[in-house]
Amino acid sequence: METEVPSKLLTTLSHAADIVRGHDFIQIYSHYDADGVSAASIIAQTLLREGKEFRATLFTTLNDYNMDIIRNTKAECIIITDLGASYIDQLDAMKNDIVVLDHHTIISEANRICYANPHLYGIDGMTSGCGATMALLFSVTMNEKNWDLVQIAFAGIAGDRQHINGLSGLNTYLLEQGVKRGYIEQMPGSLIPAGDLMTQLYLTTDPYIRGVSGNEEGVSKLLDDAGIDHGKSYMDLTEEEKRKLSSLIAIKLTEQGMLEQSMSEIARARYFLKGFNMDAEYLSSVLNSCGRSGFGGMGISAGMGDAKSIEMGAKLMRDSNKDVVLNMVELDKTGLNQRKHFQWFDSSDSGFTGMLCGIAMQCIGDPNKPTIGMNRSKEPVNLSSRGMWIQLDRGINLAVAMREACNAAGGDGGGHRIAAGGSVPSENVELFLDKLDEILERQLSSSM
Question: Cα 404 to the chain's mean position, in Å?
Answer without folding.
Answer: 22
